[in-house]
């Protein structure tokens, strides 16, 4: 669902010779940083202006589902989905509670994303006739057993909510919010299974009043459903005599104009209690058009916070851009000029700085095979994220397309395995590695292997709770096929092509004997520099991270992909610039071990992300089950590890380009 405000070499040289830079070479090299920084600032300003300046635009709905037209008195069925709770984070099937069942329960076809989310869409006894109000419809009568009573009470105390679907719209309780824009209507997804009184007695919501909003075409008299609201009640129904074919209730009888209300005694939970399930259906004509029917579900009441996040992130980027420009335009220019003016060997020996380590700066790092694997996996994650976000911004992955976002992420990750193999093998060849098949194996199994191990352990515990969130065996087989049948072969194919390509030629030769690294000040210590470098990338995204965590753990819709795409671009720029700045300070201290530090500098923001996840867990979630704690920190570990690889790769590749640029610009005698 697209909204208007979401639019937007040099040859090898002897190792011990002294670098010099000719005037013509300087003229060719120095404008490049100027153009880069100017283009960067211009792009940021253009994006900010495009986002803030009001303009006329028309939103449109891209294919997710096709509109369904209904004639008067057409029979429409409500589908039941699942029971969800923000307390336990364990979804259950609707019929895991003793609700009224049809004679044959039919499961609706579900995509991969729906299954992974725990959706289990089934038919129900809820039916309605289009544009025909009907009240006090009885479903069935049940007698609570002791086991049923315990189950009802457990689900109610854990604050479970019932999810239903009508014409691809989720059911919601109407809430009104008041702000500077006035009073606006918003939906809370689902309705509670029941409630607990002050004395600890649990009650079941056994009567549901559905309100269906429809938009009628005056020319054809056809209608489209544009809203699905509900109001739950707990009523202790009574009757004189029970007739299963035509039950007549004393607590709800339209003929006597007796309707369900909050003033009636509620339905308690207890052994031997008789519970009767009923519902009402009311139809209201609405001016809302079908293309805009999701607006109420996706109402964003705190868009100012998102704009604050964007502006805050842009200020960080502008600050880093200015610092990077000063380094590249003034400091580097001054260093090269001074170094070219040195005439005697004594002056050269007294000089210090980044230019003295040109014979060691491209020395192969420790564990270079794993560095290439991490970088290849990071490129895979970056490609997956960018392509997914592109389609999400266009509206193809809107909430109307249930499970579409997760399905797209899984499939794109598998397809992008080729880039993982290609980049990792290319870097492996650059590091003079030979065993490319083993490197390809590591690239194919590193991140998916971590995901598989953590996910399998969590899946066992979820399965032990009999939750629908456990991955079924059939879906598990599909995931294994996607991994071993498609992802692994694509990784090996990319590795073969990447290893066959000619490696990058180093701008300068590497000395055979490593240069001794002088003592470093405390602030250039590895741990200090890495932790400091990770603060700014995290500061650029932490506000948006709050909304993402809220959508994941508090069962809310997240659709503001325009904001997210802009934040992602800012994150990439921030990671690149902070790593270049920290790398420059490092090589100026004559420390040439920049390979892994460049990866860890920007990747350290994942440490702050996980720490923020701990704070979010303590302050926002109300968790009462140990399994829920395991699920939360298990998935946060996987997400933080993926974020570490992605941001670390951005910093490493940016630093590699920076090092090659500055040493490639120096002509050595």
Question: Keyphrases for this structure?
Answer:
single chain; 669 residues; alpha+beta; 5-stranded antiparallel sheet; 4-stranded mixed sheet; 17 helices; 18 strands; 48% helix; transmembrane; endosome; Transmembrane 9 superfamily member
List the helices and strands and how they pair.
Elements lengths: L18 E2 L2 H7 L1 H22 L22 E3 L1 E6 L7 E2 L18 H6 L9 E3 L4 E10 L2 H12 L3 E6 L2 E2 L1 E8 L2 E8 L1 E2 L1 E3 L5 E3 L2 E10 L6 E11 L33 E2 L5 E12 L17 H38 L4 H6 L17 H27 L9 H12 L1 H14 L5 H29 L8 H28 L25 H8 L1 H19 L7 H28 L6 H9 L1 H16 L5 H39 L2 E2 L1
Parallel strand pairs: 14-17
Antiparallel strand pairs: 1-18, 2-5, 3-4, 3-7, 6-17, 7-8, 7-11, 9-10, 12-13, 13-16, 14-15
Helix pairs in contact: 2-5, 5-13, 5-14, 7-8, 7-9, 7-10, 7-14, 7-17, 8-11, 9-10, 9-11, 10-11, 10-17, 12-15, 13-14, 13-16, 14-15, 14-17, 15-17, 16-17
